[in-house]
Amino acid sequence: MSAIVFDLDGTLIDSAPDIRIIANTVLGKRDLPPLTMTQTRSFIGHGAGHFVAQMMAANGFDRASTGFDATHAILLAEFTSLYETTFEATTLYPGVADTLDILAGLGYRLGLCTNKPALATQAVLKHFGLQDMFAAVVGGDTLPEKKPDPAPLKLAFDKLGAGAHAYVGDSEVDADTAQAAGIPFALFTEGYRKSPVDALPHMVRFDDFSALPGLMQRLKGAA
User: Fold this and answer.
1) Looking at the structure, do residues 112 and 188 belong to the same domain, yes or no?
2) Are 209 and 151 found together in one domain?
3) What is the domain range of residue 161?
């Protein structure tokens, strides 16, 4: 039996609209300028703490200033609280639910490895009825390390107890994580990456989830 692990934001779900709403709610309480969607997408990938730090920097907060860490902690707490309950503008990418069902039917054990905090991850999975689809879920605060450190991805595959087959993600962070872990990478090209497709190391790429089962079977046959 083989295992496939997925990233979440920008891979299975388009959460940027809600993340922008959350960020601008936190900023608006302080009469600070809102983030654009372009800024929001560019800040996603390294976890909530990194996002809030980028959000602050975009509004003129000096990372080297004495009060930065204390302000960051306050804003992060507000951001995370909203992150666990805000799903109205988040959507699954087309074909995700059917593709996960097909892959499970083909015998793959499925897991999730994301830099999104664990509680927010579980909440959004429950919102979309996917909480029972993944036999292993590793969030951004499950370990001290976050992607692109390979430790979270290796933990996800260890939890699945099956041979590693591929990591599916959308970004530079995901590509670097897979490479560091020595896991084949499948690139979803419609997510939040900032670089050209060819700049990201990958075994296969796709822009339509209906193509993924066939790609995984071909990878399996070539192994």
Assistant:
1) yes
2) yes
3) 2-14+91-222
Do 180 and 96 reside in the same domain of the chain? yes
Residue 165, pLDDT score: 87
Q: pTM for the whole thing?
A: 0.94
pLDDT digits (tens, 9 = 90+) for 119-128: 999 999 999 9
User: Quick one: CA dihedral 97, 101, 102, 103, positive or negative?
Assistant: positive
Phi, psi dihedrals of residue 173, rounded to the nearest 5°: -60, -45
pLDDT tens figures, 80-105? 999 989 999 999 999 999 999 999 99
pLDDT over threshold 70, residue 65: yes
Give yes or no: 7 in active site. Answer: yes
- Per the residue annotation, which of 7, 18, 170, 174 is the catalytic one? 7
Of the chain, the end-to-end C-alpha distance in Å amounts to: 13
Nearest residue to 160 via CA among 111, 121, 114, 207 = 111
If asked whether residues 70 and 148 sit together in one domain, one would say no
Amino acid at 77: A
